[in-house]
Amino acid sequence: MKIVQMNLDDFGIYHQVEWNPPQRGLIVLHGQNESGKTTLMKYVRSMLFGYLRGNWRGYFGHMDICREDGSSYRIYRNEKESYITDGATVFHEEPSVLWWHGLDRNAYDQIFAIGLEDLQGFGILANETVRSHFFSMEGGIRMSVIRRDLLRRMNDLFVASPQGKKPINLLLAAQQDIDKKIEALAYDEEEFARLQAEERKTHVDARTVRVAVEEARQQLERIAMPLAAWEVYQRGCDAWEHMQSLADVAQFPADGAQRWRELEDKVNEFDLEITGMKQGLRTKSAFREEWHRWLSGSEQIEELHRQAAAWRETAQRVNDSEDAAVDRAFASSRLAETLRLWSGSATIPKAVDWQQAETLARKLHSVAQEQEKWRAAEPKPMGSAQPASDAAERTADGWQETGRHMEKIRQLLTVRQQTAEKLAWLQEGMAGTSHTYLALSVLFVLVAAVFGLLIALAAIDMRLGGCGVAASLLLAGIAAVYQGKRRGRVPQEEQRLSAALAACDRELSGLAAAEGIALQPTAAAAAWDEALDDLRRRYLDWHTRESRVSWEREQHVMYTALQQEWQERGRHWREEAARLDREWREWQQGSGFIHLKPADLTAAATNWRQWQALADEERHWQETKGALNQELVYYRDNGEQLFQLLGIRKECTPETTEELYRQWQQIRVQAEVAKEQDRQQEERQEQIDRLEKEKEIRRQQMGYLMEQTGAATAGEFRSKVLRYKQFRQYAEIHEQSETHLRLIAKNPAELAELRRELKVHEPKFWNEECAFYERKAAEGEQKLAAIAERRGVIVERLSRMARNDSAARLLQDKENGAAELERLVDDWLTDVFAAHILEAAQAYYERVRQPLIISRAGEYLERMTQGRYTLQASFDGHQLFAVDNTQRRVPEKQWSSGLGDQIYLAIRISLAEAFAKQIEPLPLILDDVFVRFDEVRQKEALSFLADLAAEKQLFLFTCSAETQRLARDIAAERAGAVHLFEIEKGTIKVGS
């Protein structure tokens, strides 16, 4: 089992921590004190074995594990709630019950979670839990559990103490009390004593008879052993007698029958193969004589076949060219008729400068297009030539002056409104002038008078009172001055604002008169806004009319310029068209196409070029026609020679050549097949010869085997084979009977006695003894019944002799108590015997297993100390020695602390390995176990643990910086062997 993921949702100082430990390699977790190492170890123990009683509040977490068989589980422990799930099923059992055969937390802490204080020495091997889980695993862990339960049941039934309170102790005490009470209730002491003695004697007699019955039953068991073994013994003896009768084949080779069967099968197999091969042999060769001519002419056939495609292509080319020549003549005649319409004569010009004609045609077409564009681009007059004049209209300067006046009037109206508002505010303030400063002045004078009165009455110090009078008078004077200044400043501001308002009114009146506005400066603001809006409309109308007149004047000047430019372009294009027309007529006279128009130039050029190309193709065909005919004659002559050589009477054509080649391909394949058949015929004959030799070798080996076994014939050999098989069957029966006898006899001594009994006596003797002891047991049972009956009579008489029924009740209670006591004693004795047997079995497993544990621990110690020490136990296993490399045995008392810790660590790791092999590997957790190690021992131990953790999960907790440094060095030397982590206040980080 390996831990895949730890989730510490709320566990001590860890909150919402998730960590995925590596699956292999030594995991070193370093942290200072109180960093969370102990809490993390507590988390692992709690996830595997649950929280300790009463110590579950506030702990939440879960752990993901992967078992050795690959199955994955998640263990949840949220306070009291705990369960296990594999994603599909939920389990409410504990992991130790499900998987680890009841391993408890104490045993886990002693072996798998080791701290310095847990290294308890060699005494750990005597711990009952460790012995049951780690030494007796071959016998089943339940063995020690059952023995422990038996001992517990024995202790629950009886304890060897007078003060014991167990059931048997209580029943014995109750019997003694009843005996005392019965004696006290006796009517006739002597008679009662005699009857009591007889009653006690019945118990003694019953025990004596019961012992005799038990002896008889034991004898019956003893007799049952030879009776049960007689048939087995007889079967073994019969088998032995048959083995003696077959002794002549006892030395028969064990594999002789197998070898004979293999050789015989091989010979038969060779015979079948040889017969089959001979049936397939032929008497004559598969190759035909007429194929020789074809093979001799193979190169000529291949060459003719290679030329066939060119031959066919040449012939097809000639035929196609003849057809094309006819087509060319027709097309050339049709094109010539068309060209004569443009040339005006029967002769078609041989050389024509079509490029010049195309250039002239393009230019003529371009000039015609430009003329069309010129005509379409004639300018059109826009608007009147002269703008209309208005004698009553004002000038532009006048209207611009009006715009400035409107802006000035708006500014003056704004200033006048602000000035009028300020003047009204001052006038309203003068009507209710504040007398605050005057009141303050009077108040300070009164304060000065109060200070003077206090000085006169000697209520305060004169200097302090003088200062108060002076300060009060000073403040009263300041308040009076400020009040006077305020009353004088308001009229001055009012005069200034009134003058500004009058100046603004005069300027407004002048501007209104200039623009014809019949309003006073004191008119309402709405009236002024309406007058200004009317003035603005007249100004904008003038501005619009002025813009239109200016635009019409500009358009007239532009039209005059465009008209002159248009007339000039028209004159230029007319001259260009006349020049190009003269050049086109000159080209017509020079080329011979006097009736050709520029619009038909493209068609005429195309037709002329096609007519010229047809003429060139006709000339080229006439040149190549002779060479192609000569090539056809060459192909035909070669083919006819080859046909004559092969004796083929057909016309030589490309088609017959292809047919000849196909026939040659068939003949060549048939010839190759025939050659291969002839070669296989030879190989088959060689194989038949080889098989004959192999068959002869096998026959010789069979003869040698017959000589070895002394058999003269094959039939005699087979008979010996059958006799040897019978011998082996009887030997197996004899061995089985011997094994059965050993199982019936539980030990060698009983086996020897059983053999002696079986040799000396017959079943009749044992049957007689069995009948005798059965009668003896039956007689004993009858005697027991008689004794019980006599005891009943005595008890009845004793009860009648009692004064009342108390004695009867006591006797009945005694009888019941004796029966219950006898039952409990039988149970106790059964448990004693069973516990003794289980203890012996467990001791056997411990004697076998403990040396293996010590031996493996010695190997670990030798690896941990680099070969300096190993371990050796005493014969009885009660003492442990460290053996150095000089073979000197060092007892436990002479070990140093560091060596002792190394030995104890090796023993615990060996115990963990034993648990892993028998049940399942569990993660190892080591907590600061290197405290008493020096640097050399620490490095050796770390290297050993890194090797051990290559396939296991091993955690090492430490607060030592030295251990962390050594682990870091090993991690640098061996990649992946050591993983470093740092624990800081409830966090787990990757170490550096």
Automatic annotation (TrEMBL):
It holds the Pfam family AAA_27. Gene3D superfamilies: P-loop containing nucleotide triphosphate hydrolases. SUPFAM superfamilies: P-loop containing nucleoside triphosphate hydrolases. InterPro entries: P-loop_NTPase (IPR027417), YhaN_AAA (IPR038734). Residues 370-395 are annotated as: Disordered. Residues 674-701 form a coiled coil. Residues 1-188 form the YhaN AAA domain. The chain crosses the membrane at residues 437-457, 464-482. The keyword S-adenosyl-L-methionine does not apply. Keywords: Coiled coil, Membrane, Transmembrane, Transmembrane helix. PANTHER family: DOUBLE-STRAND BREAK REPAIR RAD50 ATPASE, PUTATIVE-RELATED. This is AAA domain protein.
